[in-house]
Amino acid sequence: MRLGPVRQDGVVPDIDDLDLAILRALALDARATFAEVGQQVSLSAPAVKRRVDRLREHGVIRGFTVRLDPAAMGWHTEAFVELFCHGSTSPATMRAAVEHYPEVVAASTVTGDVDLVVQVRARDMRHLERVVERLAAEPFVARTRSTVVLSALVRRPEVPQHP
pTM for this one? Predict the structure, then answer.
């Protein structure tokens, strides 16, 4: 099976089942050695390295990182904040505003009445309230609506699945 995510430059790299298996292994443990990944996908370490190098070169793999536990770092409160914007605010304007908030872990423009949904992590409810107040004070924001997360039931790393 060949998948073809479109890169920013419009090129569609070929990704086969072995590439997907390698990507899944690295998404679950970015510190895994090429030999360890090779054992999981039945390839030699040099073959895994060649494929990883190709995936990096084509922009499929953008980097390697760690997944942190927000609660262990003192961020105990999470919410989704919906922003309703005045007029037609561009995504670039929205991004420029919200990317300066260290509490914002994700932001997406969406369809429907809401213009922007922002995922926020905060130390506590008081901290969350201050963040929401700052977001609401952005010049393009008409109003906000917040939903506080009670329990995070499913959290997955970006692990590619078969379509």
Answer: 0.77
